[in-house]
């Protein structure tokens, strides 16, 4: 059984990712959470001049679990997931801000 403090702890992960999650519906929100985090990871890297794509091994580990195991794992890794969500979001925003200047530079060089 998942305890209330654990549910509260993982809802912070959902909140950081912008995923709404009501009490008792954490299992239903895991798939949208993973989808959002993968989207952020994709935006935080890619082909040059972007940095390499970030490691999403932690998301794969969550995906490999089911039921309450996912909830317990999310609780255990909540701080790391919150940190990654913020980091990937910030890196994606930086790429979006810099890419137009890079494109302009390449056009000027031609």
Write a brief caption for the model.
74% of the residues lie in helices and 0% in strands.
SSE arrangement:
Blueprint: H1 4-17, H2 26-43, H3 57-64, H4 68-76, H5 78-109
Helix pairs in contact: 1-2, 1-4, 1-5, 2-5
What does this structure look like?
This protein has five helices and no strands. It has helices at 4-17, 26-43, 57-64, 68-76, 78-109. It is elongated, with a radius of gyration of 17 Å. The chain is an all-alpha fold and 110 residues long.
Number of helices: 5
Mean pLDDT: 91
SSE pattern = HHHHH
- Supply Rg: 17 Å
- Class from helix and strand fractions: mainly alpha
Helix content: over 70%
Can you tell me the residue ranges where pLDDT is under 50 for at least 5 consecutive residues? none
Count of strand segments? 0
Rough shape?
elongated
Strand content: under 5%
The major β-sheet equals:
none
Instruction: Kindly report how far apart the N and C termini lie.
Output: 63 Å
Main traits of this protein?
elongated; 110 residues; mainly alpha; 5 helices; 0% strand
